[in-house]
Amino acid sequence: MTSDLKNKTLNGIQWTFVEAIGWRGIQFLIGIILARMLLPEQFGLIGMLTVFIAVSQTFVDSGFGSALIQNQNITELEKNSIFYFNIFIGACSTGCLFVVAPYIAEFYNQPILILMLRFMSVILLVNSFGLVQNILLRKSLNFKAETKVSILSVLVSGIIGILLAYQGYGVWSLVAQQLSSAIIRTFLLWLSSSWRPSIQFSTLSLLSLFGFSSKVFISNFQRNLFDNIYYVVIGKLFSSVDLGFFTRANTLQKLPSNTLVNVITRVTFPVFSAIHKDIDRVVRGLRKGLRILAFLNFPLMIGLAVVAHPLILVLLTKKWLPCVPYLQILCISGLILPITMSNLSVLLALGRSDLSLGLEIVKNVLVVISISVVWRWGIIALISGQVIITMICYCLSAFYTKKLLNYTIKEQISDLVPYLFCALVMGGIVYLMSYLSTEQFLFLLVGQIAVGASVYVLLCRLFRLKAFMEILNKYSKRLGN
What we know:
Layout: H1 3-37, H2 40-61, H3 64-70, H4 76-108, H5 113-120, H6 122-128, H7 131-139, H8 143-166, H9 171-192, H10 203-227, H11 229-237, H12 240-274, H13 279-306, H14 308-316, H15 324-349, H16 353-374, H17 379-405, H18 409-433, H19 441-463, H20 466-480
Helix pairs in contact: 1-8, 1-12, 2-4, 2-5, 2-6, 2-10, 2-11, 2-12, 3-7, 3-10, 4-5, 4-6, 6-9, 7-9, 8-9, 10-16, 11-12, 12-13, 12-15, 13-15, 13-18, 14-19, 15-17, 16-17, 18-19
């Protein structure tokens, strides 16, 4: 890896961590405030529409964003063609959701969803204007600009949502928050990016990228559809209140795990794409990325599952307690999914979007089978089935990593197990603290977090785990300087 690329990579990781802490942190705090002000069923109504917005957004991107990053010789004509194509698809997607809104509302038997979906569909059109600018910032590893955009957009839109919730607008405060976030983010992306579209369009240019992008699109389409299919199933077969509990639990679980996935994959995908012909470097980079993921994510997920009860009481109040078991089971998926996504990111960087697509198809077949079999036993059974599918998908992704990089499943597990062991020991000690006789849940939560963090750091230092020692040495040198 060249010195310039290495410096850009390290800088990108640092700024992406800043974004993760800033954007996700602000988003988390705003979510907590809104959850205390609003009712579970109001979050459930938003959850009912999640799958339709997520799947439609996949059409807007159409896989060309990944093609822009993976292709090292992209032309201005191709950039412009993708820009106008995105806007066209964004307008079509908004129009389609506007038309089908009554049918979706009838499906859920919630008339209010008609107007809600029509407002939220505008998000797709707004996002389409900033996709190319966002991808070009990422391709150039300019994560500093992207970080500022993300933090400002979530902060301002969050304040808008809180003010509307305080004024009694209920679920409409959540709609306004999401729509304003898209508008502000797109505006800031245009300010941050030096690229401007010119009046150029070529169908042939789009077709030249279609081989790669089409597989990415189908893979992303399936992922967004089936990752959000639980919102549809729970919203239809149970109630908006149940869906509200599931939505909040899923959001809490994804906060740390998705943050780490975004930090690692957003940086490593363009880097691996740049060095994809040097397999040894890709393997070294992947191993380091997986170790860092395990070092950070394993204690977060295990710790979150252990402290779920006092955490929900302190942050969200007693009305949200039914989401505790959902959160604890989802944390098992959160342990595994980031590792799977890292493997898939490497497949895409190597140009094997066909393998990524194939794995997505297998996963979706398993999702359909699981839901068909277990839904009658309730939401806990649905979530448990999701965990099993996540485990199977990890094994499949690791199989193809071994096939392409000769980095075996055994080697992956060997790299990950030390971190899992330390996190489990930490989790066991923290769990024992829950038996302390106290009604001061805030003090219990703070104590569990403090003890858990201390125990985990001591164990990592004792066993001299690679990721921990690398981070410790790096920042010790910085402090020494």
